[in-house]
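pls ignore typos typing on phone
alpha-D-galactopyranose + seq
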Amino acid sequence: MKKEIMQKFVEVFGDAEGVKTYFAPGRVNLIGEHTDYNGGHVFPCALTIGTYGAARKRTDHKLRFFSMNFEKLGVIESSLEDLVPSKEAGWTNYPKGVMWAFGQKGMKVPGGMDLMLYGNIPNGSGLSSSASVEVLTGYILKDFFGFDVTNQDLALIGQYAENNFNKVNCGIMDQFAIAMGKKDHAIFLDTSDLSFEYAPIALEGAKIVIASSNKKRGLGDSKYNERRSECETALAELQKVTDIRSLGDLDEESFEKYQSAIQSDVRRKRAKYAVYENRRTVRAVEALKANDVALFGQLMNASHVSLRDDYEVTGIELDTLVEEAWKIDGVIGSRMTGAGFGGCTVSIVKDEAIDTFIDKVGKAYENKIGYKADFYVVEIGDGPSEI
Ligand code: GLA
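k done
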């Protein structure tokens, strides 16, 4: 890929003098969904697919962007003096947002750049193509200008940009999984204090398979913010009767004890989901450590059921993919992953069942939904790097 992106850089920006190339991964979350803004645990991993970047410093303050995924948009020009979100050139708001966020954190970006990107994460699929671009941009800025930031800082800066520049109220999971990714490991992250550990994912005789529903998200982002505020209101109601900082502070028993303080059935379901999912995540990681992959799979399935019935973020596309997956021998666990409302499912599938899985789930999906799903057998990769 390095060669292709360099070639394109030369074609678009003239020559290869001083150009450096980089990569940042996408991510998939194995379990612990919608818990990262509730002070709970998540268990994502970085992928070997992601975003490639070729970049060169400029001597002025100009920014020139080109994406091989959106060639029709051509070169998009901007400048460090004009770091405001733009409607027309949507994707450039991710690198621009990160440049703006560095400035907000006291690290004013001193010079412009030419930036060429190519992503092999399916766009809008819920595998964090945007967080991947954010972390990549931060990594390039650090390399170009010597900013004193760790990879964890890059995750926080990316999230800050997403929240305050792009106005999506996301948690820390995506940027953290990408910035801190480690080959063949998932990250067990406690979002209440960012303490984390790497857990080896050695699935003997099985692989992680991602199915993309190809459903465009549409309303996803506003529903995301809606779930978030439902949880915040439920938390405020619970705080009247018990001393907690977040829903992640509750276990199942204490939730059942205090849940009547929540004044609406809908909010009670949302909060219940968040509390139970957090506990499921902790138990799933324990199961994995004990080599009990079957239990890990059951917890993934239970996660999907509650995302469908309590949190209500799945929809017919994701439910079809998951419910068809559950019918197949050799599927250890299957659930939606990411924000939901479209996007992808993640399944752990025994090697000998992968072809059948792709065939049967693919056919059933197309029959019911009317268009195709895409399947990816993925590997767990490292965080950002110069390539
Ligand atoms: C999106 C957000 C994350 C997280 C997930 C749901 O990917 O960006 O912060 O909340 O949804 O788990």
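Residues 29, 33-34, 36-37, 170-171, 173-174, 338-339 surround alpha-D-galactopyranose (CB under 6 Å). The longest helix spans residues 265-289. more later
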